[in-house]
Structures are given as structure tokens and as C-alpha cells.
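Hi team,

As requested, here is the filled-out complex form for the coenzyme A run. I kept the field names the same as last time so the parser does not choke. Let me know if anything looks off before we queue the next batch.

— J.
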Amino acid sequence: MTDAPSYAAAYGDWMRDPAAYWAAEAQGIDWIRSWDKVFDPSLGAFGQWFAGGMLNTCYNCLDRHVEAGRGAQAALIHDSPMTDTVTTFTYAELLDRTERLAGALASLGVTKGDRVVIYMPMVPEAAIAMLASARLGAIHSVVFGGFAAAELASRIADAKPKVIVSASCGLEPGRVIQYKPLLDAAITLSPHKPDACLILQRPQAQAALTPGLDHDFAAAMDAAVPHGCVPVPATDPLYVLYTSGTTGRPKGVVRDNGGHAVALWNSMRMIYGVDTGDVWWTASDVGWVVGHSYIVYGPLLRGCTSVMYEGKPVGTPDAGAFWRVIAQHKVKVLFTAPTAIRAIKQQDPEGALTRRHDLSSLQALYLAGERCDPPTAIWAHELFGKPIVDHWWQTETGWPITAGFRQFGLFPFKPGSGGRPCPGYDLHALDDNGRVLSAGETGNLSLRLPLPPGCGPTLWQNDEGYRTSYLSDFPGWYRTGDAGVVDSDGDVWVMGRTDDIINVAGHRLSTGSMEEVLASHHDVAECAVIGARDELKGQAPMGFVVLKAGVNRPEADVAAELIALVRERIGPVAAFKDARVVARLPKTRSGKILRGSIRRIADGEDAPVPPTIEDPAALDELRALFGG
Ligand code: COA
Ligand code: AMP
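And here is what came back:
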């Protein structure tokens, strides 16, 4: 097998001189002041990119395209089968809305460095709020709508926003989710209170506004004076995005302005092969990193048309919804999670619905958020006859670590592999002592420092947490938390997390935080949550609880209460629907719960009895529970 020569050349260019490589890529961004150093190793946890440079990310996403004469080009197409509407915003229109919202936020006191929490469904105003915050040099923190009030509260408490932008409701199939009661409850729970909330009233539900705190979004926009772009140091934060960590407390991943703009601008063409004027669709949610990078910033930095979709892969109205969107908007490249393709495949295994639509515009399908299982990749490949590219990354990195590259000619299709390292990442599998493993050996996938531009330089006001979470296990390396192997071709195979994080329908969740909720139930003595294999969602959480001595209640009642409790504390997105009462949990003699063994039994795999087990009968009981 031979490499596409230009991948090898680009990777080699980067390896030989990273500063020159990134300085060349940075030419794609408009700078107010050029950097003093492409990379300054003396700053931050491992150094910082484009130190001394000044720019404004919103300017690079909007103003410069309008100034270049592309104001009439579509920037954002909001396609909502939930409301049966399609709304197109040209670059000029999106700029107009953003300038006004920036003005409205400024009139509420938001200035450079202030935080703005955005708790919104998939409406265009969510993207506009992100851009408006960037315009002011403020720092946004978007919270996914499927989280419960307590999760929102913990993010408000940590980010300490001056203003929160929210909406009256979100729309899920068959139900209207009232956001305002969740927001009010979160503000009550949080020790930090915002100065003001801007509430978008949607026709499906009107929210009662609290005088003195809440402001009507539309009225604020009407009254607003358009605001210009505030120059921001390249190393200043653009946003904080909270993600699941190995404890119940979410981690606030910081993204800087300069490195982020350069990395995303570069990735749009190098990885995905799209450029100015191309129509690009990421079917995800702005609450996740995929939505930040590839619904909003990446495509707009590059001058593409980005489709923002408020709907599901199935049921809105059927499993042909994605094909309808591709045909209607002439989408060139689609990016989504494998779970969405599995959902479609389940309902339309022959792909009959694809034949109702003209999919000739589609050139490639990119998948991420979880490993794409080979049967799904092969099904999609045979159906479209177009490249299906699995690529691996995480909230912390902000853009892909490994991928297939349309700019260089894609690698041969290897279903189950996540592609090869992007220029910028020196990736290796390490053993537990930090020794670099040979090709084909499984280990801790780790990145040699420094991380490239765009990767989170720290956690929000928690440098020490960043070091201990990612940098301290293997000095000189960033530990991704994923296990995997690099094969002899250089292709990377990601096997799964080495910590308690699970991926449910492409959503990153912590089993530790679910265990905290289960443990808080008055009848529970101890518990374990694992991610069991799930046909549709990849993984699904499953809880096992031991009841306190003397508790003699129907197990079904306790299980129902536990399911309700996780939904109330973490939110529906946890998809926690399976709780089982057991007599005991398998443990080592030192008292560590053998979660790996529980998971293997739940998945119907062999679970050898570990030599350190305290009581082997506990495994037999679990096997009996699963009919093994
Ligand atoms: N606001 C409120 N509730 C939400 C929500 C939101 N933004 N997003 C999801 N939920 C709810 C769902 O309605 C569901 O509620 P239920 O338990 O009452 O049915 C629950 O959270 C779990 O959602 P999900 O895991 O997404 O399951 P689903 O059955 O609704 O949909 C898929 C399954 C596969 C169709 C869906 O997960 C999907 O489209 N995934 C695409 C992948 C994706 O966007 N990944 C993001 C990272 S790339
Ligand atoms: P998130 O931070 O939500 O993007 O989740 C990141 C985690 O999802 C990674 O650490 C992986 O465990 C998993 N993940 C994302 N994309 C892939 C992929 N293409 N292949 C395997 N795992 C993936």
C-alpha cells in the first residue's frame, strides 16, 4: 500500500517545521495584529499558539466574507422538520443579526472576557448568540438542551455568566420541552446568578418572563445598536465547553481564538475537502463540540454554507429525512454520528428511501463521536458508493486527531479504523509506563506535546486540573483517555475509553456521575454503572444497585425511582433506562468494583474470574441475571 503522496508530504512538512507549517496555515485568517511567536513554549500548560497576535473570530466568520463581496451567499440554512420551516440567512443577514445581538448583549453589560451561557435548542439564534459573544470578545459556554437543571446549574456556577441566552422551548418528537422552568431552577440552584437573561419566545410555548431579570430576545434585537468587532488576543478564550470528566464534576474545556480559527479553517479543506461557497451539513447539536466546530465556526470561517438541522435522522418524518435535506440543499459533505446512520439502517435496511431523492451532490460522509462499527460503515458505503470516513477526536482537541483527507486523496477504505493522524498530531500508543509501543500493539493513545493549534490549552480557571487530567500520567504527552493501536500502515484503531466515560448515541457521558446519583437514593447501599453494548446507540448505561440491609421494597419500584432520579439530575440525554437490583457486586479483595467484568457479562462476552476477586459467586449471580 502506498500513501497518497501529498498526505505524506503535508505530514512531513509539519514534522520538519511545525512553526512554519502553522504560520502558513494562519495566512487564511485575517489578523488585526500579527503574532510575535507562532508558538511560545513559555506560556500555559504546554505553550500557546500565535502569542501576541490579535484577531476577532466573528469578523473572520462573517464580516470579511461580506467585505469580499459574498454578502448575498447563503451562510446558514436552518432546516427544521420539527416546525416544518426552512430559513436561509445570507452572510449579510447573518452579520446583521449578529451585530444586533452583540449590541443587545453589550447593552446588558457584556464586555470582553465576560461569560455568556447559551442554553438553546437548534435554532439559528443559538449560532447567532455564539457569534455575537465572539464579536464582543466575550466567552460563550453553550449547554446542551438535553441536560437537566442541576447540570445547567453546575455550569452556571463554574462559568459565572453575566448573561444567559435561552429560549422558551425546545422541540423533541411528540413533545415540547419547556426550557424556562429548567433555566429558572438552574439559576435558583446555582450560587452564581446572572445579571440578565435574554429569552427567545418560540411560538410553540411562551415563557413567563421575570421582571428585572428576563428580557425578550426579539424586543432586545429591535432596540439594539449594532456592535462592531472587539480585537482579542489570539490566546484569549473564545469559549468554554463543559464535557464529562472522570468525576461527576464536568470539565470546562477552554478554546482560544487564534489557534482555533487557524486549525478549523485548515481542516475544512484539508480533511473534508470543502471550500468557500460549498454546502456543508453537520447533523449534530450546537451543544456538542462537533456543533461548535462544524455547524458554526469551521464552515463560516471557510465561507461555506452551513446547514443547521432541527430534527432527527428518523421519525421527522421518516428514515429518509437526511436524504431529503441533502437533495434539497445540495449538500456536498455530510458529517454525523454513526448512531444516526444505524437508526436509519434499522428502519430502512434496504435504503429504499434514498432512491426517492437526488443525492448526486453528496461527495462524502464523515462520521465521529464514537467508533463506527464496520457493518454500518459497509452498509453506508454500499448504499452511496461514496467515501465513508470515520475520524476520531474529542471535545478537548476541538478538531480531528485522525482522519481521512479529501484534499490528499482518501486512504483505502478500512472499516473500523479512524484514519491517520492529522498534520499537527504526533500520535502513539504508549504502555502504562509511558513507553512508545510498536505498530500493532494496543496501548494508551497519546499525543506528544505540544498539542497543535485549536486544542484546548487548559480547563476553565483550573490549570492544575488540566495538568492532572491529561498531562501528568505520561510526562511530555497528552493522554487522550482512549485505548487503541496504530497499525503498520499508520492507520489508527480506537478501541474505547480507559476511564469511566461512555458514548451513548454519540453523546459523551460519565458513568461516575450516574453512580453519584444512584448512590444518593436513600435505599441504595452501593452501586455500579457500566456502558453496555447497544444496537442503536453504541452504548447504553446500565445500573446495578445493592439495597441497604432491611430495605424490603419491590425491586421494580426502586428501579423506576432510580431511572427517574437520573433523568431529573442529569437529564434525558443520559438515556438511563435500565436499573437492576442485585444481592452483591463483584469486587476485588481490596474492595474495587469489577466494572469490566460486569460489562463483559452484560454484553454476553466471556468474563474470566480475576484472581483478585473477593467472591466468585457474585459473577455467577450476574451471569444468571443475563441468562448465561
Ligand atoms: N433537548 C431535550 N431532550 C433531548 C434533547 C434536547 N436537545 N436531545 C435528546 N433529548 C432527549 C430525547 O428526546 C430522549 O428522550 P426520551 O428518553 O424521552 O426518549 C433522550 O434525550 C435520549 O436522547 P437520544 O439518546 O438522542 O435518543 P433518541 O431515541 O431520542 O434518538 C438517535 C436516537 C440515534 C436518533 C439520536 O440520538 C440521534 O439523532 N443522534 C445523532 C447523533 C448526534 O447528534 N450526536 C452528537 C455528537 S456528533
Ligand atoms: P466528545 O468529547 O464528546 O467528542 O467524545 C470524545 C470521545 O468519543 C473520544 O475520546 C472517543 O472515546 C469517542 N470517539 C469520538 N470519535 C470517535 C471515533 N471516530 N472512533 C472512536 N471513538 C471516537
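Two things worth flagging: The domain at 503-625 is CATH 3.30.300.30 (GMP Synthetase; Chain A, domain 3). The two ends are 44 Å apart (CA to CA).

Thanks,
J.
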